[in-house]
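Hey, resending since the last one bounced:
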Amino acid sequence: MKKRLKKRFRVGRRWLALGMLALAAGIAWIYADAGPKLGAPGNGDSLSVFSFREKAPASPSDLEREASVTVRRLYVCGEEDLPLGVLPPERIAELASAHPEWEFGAAKDGAVVFTEHVDDLSEACKRNAYIGVDAAGSLTLYEGPPREAKAVKTFFQLDVEHLESALPSEVVTQLREGIRITDLADYNSVLSTFSDFAIDETEKVMKPEA
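The structure tokens again:
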């Protein structure tokens, strides 16, 4: 009796092992068939769990093909974009070498932007910049007179009560109407003057060196 039971147990265990092997083989076949679909860019299959995206070049030497190039000039007031057209990689590398002060940036679509910081006002700012005070009492840079409400940048909060008591009324009126800014000297002079009436300590960062 015991021998028959042992024999049946060995036979049952052998069939269980064969079943497990068959199940493992079936799973392996399913994944082998689905494998090429995993991570395929643009594949909408529910099995796609990975995505691989092309990285933007980190420097001009990483460029492998021609690209649309723009020089972006960031001024103290204003900015300008200067398109240079589509250039080959070697020409882009030459530009970067000739202008080490330019910051290189590239998008994944292949466009290249060099950023140049200019310690001056843009031509648009020289033509139409005003510094005034907004309704909240903040010293503000405007494109056009403040009454047109085209604020470009807020500098710092003013102690308006102190300002009105300390400065001549005509200066306060001029500030409210907008002080015309035509060059960097005007810009720095106005910031320096009114930083004395700033509430926030961060105004010291905005105050130009004497």
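The first strand starts at residue 67 and ends at 77.

Sorry for the duplicate.
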